[in-house]
Here is the input.
Amino acid sequence: MSLAQNVLELARWAPSGDNSQPWRFRIVSEREFDVYGYDTRSHCVYDLDGWSSQLAHGMLLETISIAATRYGCRAHITLPEGDTPHLDLPGSEAPPLRYRVQLEPDAALPPDPLAAVIVERSVQRWPMRPQRLTDTQRASLEEAARPLRIAWFESWPARARIAWLCARNARIRMTIPEAYAVHRTVIAWHATTSEDRLPDASLGAGPMLLATMRSAMVSWQRLDRLNRWTGTLLPRLALDFLPGVLCSAQLAIVADWEPATLADRIAAGRAIQRVWLRATALGLQMQPQYTPLVFARYVRSHREFTQRPGAQAEAATIAASIDTALPGAAAANVAWLARIGPAQPVRGRSLRLPLAQLVVGDPPPKLPRLATV
Ligand SMILES: Cc1cc2nc3c(=O)[nH]c(=O)nc-3n(C[C@H](O)[C@H](O)[C@H](O)COP(=O)(O)O)c2cc1C
Here is the structure.
């Protein structure tokens, strides 16, 4: 394998929303490659303006930089000129962004210790041990987040407030057809691993709840009917509130300004991945809770995200709760919301597409859409 391939073989383990891996690679030479960064805004309600994909691009680019040090190289990354290409035409996909990476050998560069945990880092959706973080752990995570900062919610009432916010937000996720359209394609049922989706074993649901989800999610009509008959409180308590309390802390990663440009979102993604890897190195696990931030931004920018009456108003209360939770830090500046803590090894794991499938030619192809399973 070439140097570029070695680095990408490791870096492809970067996280992405719903394991979408919105990137493909074009090897230019032994030491140079392009990352084509795609987004899923045309069909994923959570990828508003492609921002969550672009955050993932930042996480990938940070992972590339860290992985390169394992091969004695410094990665020089050039971002696309200008800002996000924005193709708003109905049904069209935004063209991929092109990030150019050049690997420069540097014999004096020590391997970044975070390279050792790139593959191990994984999302933990099950409850964690509610063990207080040490000052050293907190300081180490804050250092990894720079130039962004971390706002902590550690006491029981503070964790419970964010957990309840997430549980309220989950009602939106569970009851809008636009989210169902996403969930029915991204979950791999009866699976403990998946190369391009979330295996159901990773969702943090016990066997009874999983069986109910599986049978309800066969069609939107069925799911909607079940939601009306039984309500959504029990699954929201099991999947959002309880885990939200059973952790060491809830945290927000906050920038000094709203990540309004592509460069801001890349910088935020890079910081988030450093925090996630540092947490892994410290023996801690993390679960992002990104969707409240997305629904809040729909509200702030006065954009409708659903045909279900009432959901937009529910999102407005989520946005207000984020404002209240983060006094002093404008809620718009929050790049990441997550829970963190020590836990058992994960019980289901998203794998990645093989490198051979991620390497493409020029011009970049369209990102294949997942079929419904
Ligand atoms: C931008 C972004 C948003 C995400 N949002 C959530 C989320 O709201 N809830 C969640 O459980 N996981 C979330 N994830 C985690 C991904 O689902 C996860 O990283 C991906 O499936 C790959 O799995 P792994 O991290 O275990 O390797 C998010 C990841 C990214 C990069």
About this structure: The longest helix spans residues 51-70.
